Amino acid sequence: MPSQPVSRRGFIKSAAVGSLVTGAVAQSRSQPPNVILIVADDLGYGDLNCYGSSIPTPNVNALARQGVQFTQYYAASPVCSPSRASLLTGRYAPRTGVPYVLQASDTHGLLPSEVTMAEMLKGAGYRTMCVGKWHLGSLPQFMPNSKGFDEFYGLPYSVDMSPLPLLQNTNIIEEPANLNTLTERYTQQAVNFIANSQKKPFFLYFAHSFPHIPVATSEAFKGITGMGKYADTIAEIDSSVGAVLQALQSNNIDNNTLVIFSSDHGPWYQGSCANLRGRKGETFDGGMRVPFVARFPGSIPAGQTNSTGMATALDLLPTIASLTGAKLPPNPIDGVNIWPLLTAAQDSVARDIFLFIDTYNIQAARMGPWKLHVARYNTPPWVPLPKIGRANLPLANPELYNILNDPGESSDISLDYPQVVAEIQARINSLLPDMPSHVQSAWKLTASTPVKWNAAGAWPVEAESSTTDSRS
């Protein structure tokens, strides 16, 4: 039987129950827990040793052994800016004003009405810092110091954009940024922040700029893996994780700190998706399912691998709010509290379907083990756009996959489970009225677009409408 979706009212009830349980964690300690959120850029599901890669990542491996490792965790978008907007707000990206990748020249960013995780925790007495890549708007009113972070050290956007200044708070300290020493300097800033945050609980958002291309490493890591520059870059990120963990031990706050490591979405050209289909820019799992490990000594049992419970980047804000006792933002939250999954108290948590959205386009949805693809672009993201642009087109026959049995999304079983297809389609339609108008319009446009399919039933060869966006 397919799992039963829950209403938004059910979400609120579930979150309230979770708050009663997890709020006790904050109350039972002398000080609310510190939170460190480490997010790599373009790191693939198969790029870590603990996820099957041959690249040595002993520190992330140790983090996983000492806590929990998820195999069913999703970024909220297959590209950079939207995924980060959702991560920090707990809301689908089209709600936040950042539905697509922002360019260096863009003059807009995260909407003033959006409340970030940093603003939420700052309201609960936390000291906050963002280290690394921001990419949610590069004008002063959109930068970290204006969105709840006491301190910022990093880049306004991706390493392949120009001009590329390195900032300390609002001051340019280097331009262009020296990429070779970037990870090393990020790490030192993070370690310093931990050492200087003993009097108040803190939130550290450590957003690495790599392994987004062009990759770069410090001299000590060049050639260290014998597997090329990409692997060397990941090895340096892993070493950075080790330095952060050592800083927690050296300052005697290891046992009162939640550490999470993940990625903003799947890999671009060089990384590994393991056995998943697709990659960055696509709503197949290879584009959005990413590594996720979490450790909190004494609260998250060690040695777990959660291979069935689905979690998403949307869930981190409500989970951390409940854990720390922080007040949830007034905006409706799309994520749910996953603390019962982190602590192995439950195998799953109540949630509505999870929508796979790129820009304003709904392309798929997941409910329990089921994933239904309803639309797709007429060209893969790595193919140059045709003159008409990239169109989001309806699939003549929606494709259904059981992700637990078929992680590669290779065997369409929609004809075997028509009731599941109908249920997910009904849930998509029921969520649409609550979505921004651009999402509703895009959905109507997708559904009404005439399509001709090629003989293989693969990529459409004709479309009458299109949208374009960057894949950076």
Layout of helices and strands, plus pairs?
Layout: H1 8-27, E1 34-40, H2 58-65, E2 68-70, E3 73-74, H3 80-89, H4 93-96, H5 117-122, E4 127-133, E5 151-155, E6 166-168, E7 171-174, H6 182-195, E8 202-207, H7 229-250, E9 257-263, H8 285-288, E10 292-295, E11 304-306, E12 311-312, H9 316-324, H10 339-342, E13 354-358, E14 361-367, E15 370-377, E16 392-402, H11 418-431, H12 437-448, E17 452-453, E18 460-462
Parallel strand pairs: 1-8, 1-9, 2-11, 3-12, 4-5, 4-8
Antiparallel strand pairs: 2-10, 5-6, 6-7, 9-10, 13-14, 14-15, 15-16, 17-18
Q: Which key features would you list for this structure?
A:
18 strands, disordered C terminus, ten-stranded mixed sheet, 472 residues, four-stranded antiparallel sheet, alpha/beta, Alkaline Phosphatase, subunit A, disordered N terminus
